[in-house]
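Entry 14. Ran structure prediction on the chain below.
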Amino acid sequence: MEIVDPYDKTRASDKFLFYVDDREVRQQIQHVLGLPFLPLDDVIDVFNDMEDDLSDAVLEVYEYFEKTYLVGTPGRGRRRAVPPRYPPAIWNVYEAVIHDDHRTNNMVESFHNTFQKSCQV
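Output, structure tokens:
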């Protein structure tokens, strides 16, 4: 059985190479990646506004981001709607940037590691 590294598979794909070579595609993906820095109330509106200007190459990334990070999967028939796995309130860092707070939990992890080492005998 062959073990395949998904990262290597992605890097080798034509989509990845297209992202690297096409400035417009790269810029559109960077716009999506800039959403965490917008006010929380504006994230979904700005994301929806971006859809009109997307190239076909970015549409798959856009749909994945929408499903996983913004609105989830809508319900159909008897199937219930599924909320996004990571809603904007979790990953939005706008308030942290404005108030010069930490955007990650690296500080907590550092304290935990130091504390754990000090407790070892």
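The helical segments are 6-12, 14-21, 23-33, 43-50, 56-70, 88-91, 94-98, 106-119. Will compare against last week's run tomorrow.
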